[in-house]
Amino acid sequence: MADENCSQALSALAEAIEMEKRGQAFYLDAAAEAVDPLARTTLTGLAADEVEHVRLLETQYQAVEETGQWACFLDLGPKDSYKPQSVFPDTAGPIEDLTDRASAAEVLEQAMQFEEKGYQLYKAAADGTDDLEGKAVYEYLAKQEDEHYRILQQTHEYLLHPDRMFDDMERPMFEG
């Protein structure tokens, strides 16, 4: 990898690591404040996912820094410039706002916005690199952000409308 590309990759990876760490802190703080057990469990699970994302990114950072090459993404397996502050806020500010007792649904709405921004950033990073391993990492993380969004959206919908949980699965008798 050329020095300029290596430098860009290291910069993007460092910022992505920071974004994921902020995400973890946000989810843990929000889970600690959550009164609803479903919201708390969802937020705690997402925080654990962020730990895995940090591990993946830190491994890639170390590989690029030491060898000038991305590590083979398949070997790691899941166990342009980012602006992490535009995705996850510093925990001191908005979390205090949440303790003013925003509902669990409002917390999940805020988390969905963060995940959407993260998805867009990873997608742009994937589109912006020619390195196949780098592209694989960014595409994986974009899929993870999309999955987090889906989980948050489903939890949000359930909290607001628990009576509709199985509506999409129920079919009239003649549909089978």
Report on this structure.
The chain is mainly alpha-helical and 176 residues long. The chain has a single domain (3-163), classed as Ferritin, core subunit, four-helix bundle (Ferritin, Up-down Bundle). Helix content is 72%, strand content 0%. The chain is built from six helices and no strands. The chain has helices at residues 3-33, 37-67, 73-76, 92-99, 104-127, 132-160. Helix 1 (3-33) packs antiparallel against helix 5 (104-127) and helix 2 (37-67) runs antiparallel to helix 6 (132-160).
On the 0 to 100 scale, the average pLDDT is 80
Q: Give the termini separation.
A: 56 Å
So, CATH architecture? Up-down Bundle
Which H/E pattern describes the elements?
Answer: HHHHHH
CATH superfamily: Ferritin, core subunit, four-helix bundle
Contiguous uncertain segments of 5+ residues: 80-87, 95-102
Name the helicity range: over 70%
